[in-house]
């Protein structure tokens, strides 16, 4: 499994547009989960923890603006790129009291959509992320892709590297397995929690006593000082 750029949720009720968005985002390295109904999407966001949502405004069930409001009301700040079809939708989205991060107007080029998604994610994660991370006895450099455990160089696969960077990049934060599947593997949670457990076990074996990853029983994993 190659290193993914995270799971993007596409919420779009027109199948051909959803397909186009999915194909281009996948080609750009994202995992993609598609929902076509606002209410179902609201449930799926909680379950799958996408790194970003591409959200059509005109949806059956509840519309995109309302969906955004409900997410923010439950303190979910997943970045959003709205897709609007008409000027009056642009006005509602630009009211931005609803808390969208960007918008794009139909018809749009799929390349432009991919560029917007990339720039919103960079704004959320990019510039503030230092290239060198260290926690406990582990040092990790994102640029050179080097990892050391208690001063000893360690070889990691790209997935192990991504998992370690995600965990030690947020010390003390508890991640659920679905959150890690979304951010590290770019996969929606279809129950493959064992994948996460196997990779954590591999990291522990390779990093030895320096490994800062703790099991949080019944929830997931967290990285901490020893
Ligand atoms: Ca629509």
What does this entry look like structurally?
Strand 8 and strand 9 form a beta hairpin. The chain starts with 6 loop residues before the first strand and ends with a strand. It has 2 domains: 119 residues, Rossmann fold; 92 residues, Winged helix-like DNA-binding domain superfamily/Winged helix DNA-binding domain (Arc Repressor Mutant, subunit A, Orthogonal Bundle), CATH 1.10.10. It contains 8 helices and 12 strands. The radius of gyration is 19 Å and the shape is elongated. The site of calcium ion has 5 residues, from loops. Calcium ion binds next to loops.
Main sheet, how many strands, which sense, barrel? 5 strands, parallel
**Bound ligands:** calcium ion
- Report helical residue fraction: 40-55%
Which strand-content bin applies to the residues? Answer: 15-25%
Order of helices and strands: EHEHEHEHEHEEEEHEHHEE
- Into how many domains do the coordinates divide? 2
The end-to-end distance, rounded to whole angstroms, is 30 Å
Indicate the structural class. alpha/beta
The CATH class of the largest domain is Alpha Beta
The name CATH uses for the topology of the largest domain is Rossmann fold
C-alpha Rg (nearest Å): 19 Å
């Amino acid at each position: 499994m190659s290193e993914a750029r995270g799971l993007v949720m596409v919420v779009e009720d027109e199948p051909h547009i959803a397909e186009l968005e999915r194909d281009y985002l996948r080609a750009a390295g994202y995992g993609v989960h598609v929902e076509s109904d606002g209410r179902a999407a609201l449930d799926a966001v909680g379950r799958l923890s996408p790194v970003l949502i591409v959200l059509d405004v005109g949806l059956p069930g509840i519309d995109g603006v309302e969906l955004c409001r409900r997410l923010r009301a439950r303190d979910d700040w997943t970045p959003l790129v709205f897709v609007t079809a008409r000027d009056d939708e642009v006005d509602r989205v630009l009211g931005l009291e609803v808390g969208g991060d960007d918008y794009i107007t139909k018809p749009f080029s799929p390349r432009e959509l991919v560029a917007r998604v990339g720039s919103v994610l960079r704004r959320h994660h990019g510039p503030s992320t230092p290239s060198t991370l260290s926690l406990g006895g582990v040092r990790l450099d994102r640029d050179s892709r080097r990892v050391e455990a208690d001063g000893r160089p360690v070889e990691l696969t790209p997935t192990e590297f991504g998992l370690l960077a995600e965990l030690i990049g947020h010390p003390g934060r508890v991640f659920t397995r679905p959150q890690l599947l979304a951010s590290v593997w770019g996969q929606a949670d279809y129950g493959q929690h064992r994948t996460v457990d196997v990779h954590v076990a591999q990291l522990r074996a390779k990093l030895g006593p320096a490994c800062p990853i703790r099991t949080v029983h019944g929830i997931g994993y967290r990285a901490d000082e020893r």
